[in-house]
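DM from R.C. (forwarded with permission)

"hey, sorry to bug you on a friday — could you get me a structure for this? deadline for the figure draft is monday and I only need the backbone to look sensible"
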Amino acid sequence: MNANAIQELLNNQFGITIVFDNEGILYFMSQGGEEELGYKWQDTNIRQICSAMFPEDRDIKTYMEKIGGRKVHTIVCRANHTSFPALVRSSVFQIKEISVNIATIYNLQQTEEAIVQLVKTESHIKEGIKSRNEFVANVTHELRTPVNGIKGHVTNLLEQEENADTRKIMDIILQCCGNMEKIINNMMDFSKIEAGKFEIMEEPFDIRKCVKNVVDTSITIANGKGITLSSYVSDDIPETLIGDELRIGQILNNLVSNAVKFTSIGYVRIEVYRTMQKNHQVELTFFVIDTGIGVTAEEKEKMFKSFSQVDGSVTRQYGGTGLGLYVSKQLIDLMHGTIDLESEKGKGSTFRFTLLLDVDGNSDGSSEVLEKITMLDELRAEIRQSQDTLDVEQIYQFGTRENREEISKNMEKLTLCIEMGNWGRAEQFAENVKKLCEEAPKEIKNKIFRMQMSVRKENYEKSLSGLEGIQTELNKVLQED
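My reply, with the result:
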C-alpha cells in the first residue's frame, strides 16, 4: 500500500488521527483533525504542536510513556485556545531507532452531545407511541359502546320483525356491527401488544367448537359472494385442549375474513391437523386456504406489518385497516407459535400457523405419544388430496357444468348490484364474469368488455342491456355445445 492510500485511509477513519515522534514533531494529521483543531500540520512554523494540543502533558516523552499502547482520557486544546475532553488511543512503533506514535483522538463532548440527543429522541418517540396507544385505546373503547348499542337494539327488533326484506336489512346491519367489532378488537389488541400489556390465557377449550364458531361468523358473507366456506378438523386431535380459545379464534377469524374478502370465485377452507403429540402436549397445524387474488413474493414481505396492505389499490377496492395480520402474528408469537404464507398472484393463498398446546388431563388420548406424522411437504400433499372443495380448473374451463354455474351466480350478483347501485361490487362481479369467459368466443368477450365499460361509468341502462346481450349469446353457445 503506497503513502497516498494510507493517507486516504486515515482521512476516512472515525476520529482524529495524528502521527508524531518522541520529540513531539507532528508528521501527519487527518483531514478531520485540521477541521476540528484548527492546526495545519504542514505548516513548518507549528510542526511542534503536540505540547500545545496536550497541555496536561507538555513533556512529550512523558506523555508517550503514559499513553503508549493504551487509551487514556485527557484534554485536547484547539488552535483558538478552546478545548474539549477526549479519549486518546495510541500505538507506538519503532522505525529505525525512532519511536513513532500513531494516536486516534475521539471528541467525548460530541459523543456525549450525540448520546443526550439520542436519549431525547428516544424519549420523544416513546412518548409519541404511548400517546398514540392511549388514543387508540380510548377511541376504540368509545366506539365499542355505540356498536354494542346498535347491535342490541337491532337484535331485539329482528326478533319481532316479520317482513322478510326488513329482516334482510337488519341482518346486514348486524354483519356490519360484527365487522366493526373485529376492527375495534384488533385496534385494542394492537395498543395492548405495543404497550407490552397483553396476556395469553390458559383454559380448557374445544378446538372443534372454536373452528365452527369461526365458520359461522363468516358463512353469511361467503354465501353472499357465492363462494364456499368449509372446515375440517382431524379426528386424532384430543377433544379438550388447554389454551387461549378467544385468541386462537381471533387469529382464525382474521385469516378467514381476509380470505373471504379477497376471494371472488372458488372457496375458503380451514383445516386443522395434529402434526405431533408428546406426553401432555400436542402440536396443531392450522391451514386457511383460499382461491383468491394471491400476492407476489415481494408483496409477502409487507403482509405482517402493522397498518399494511400490499398496495393502495387493494385498500381502495377491498377496504380494511391492515391490522388483522399484524395482530395475528403478534398473538401467535406470544403463544410461541409460527406463521407463514404460501401464495401466487392470481392463484390464491395458504396461511399456515402452528401452536403447541397442552392436552386436558381428562381428555381422551392425553397419554398417547406420537412422533411427527410427516414432513411439511408430505402433509400438504395429504391436505390437497383430502380436501373436499371445488375443482378450480373446471370452473375456468368454459362450458363445463362448474363454469356455467359460476357464470350464472356471478351474473345474478352483478344484476342485483347494478339494480341497487352498488357499483363497486358490480365491478368485482363483472371482472369475475370476464375471467370465467376467458375461453369463450370472441363475440361474448367483446360484449363483456363493453358491459364492463358501462359498469365503470355507472350507466344503469347500458349495464343491464349489456348483461342481457351477454346472456343471450351465452345461451346460444352453451345450447349448441
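R.C.: lifesaver. The radius of gyration is 35 Å.
me: no worries. Residues 214 and 253 are 6 Å apart (CA to CA).
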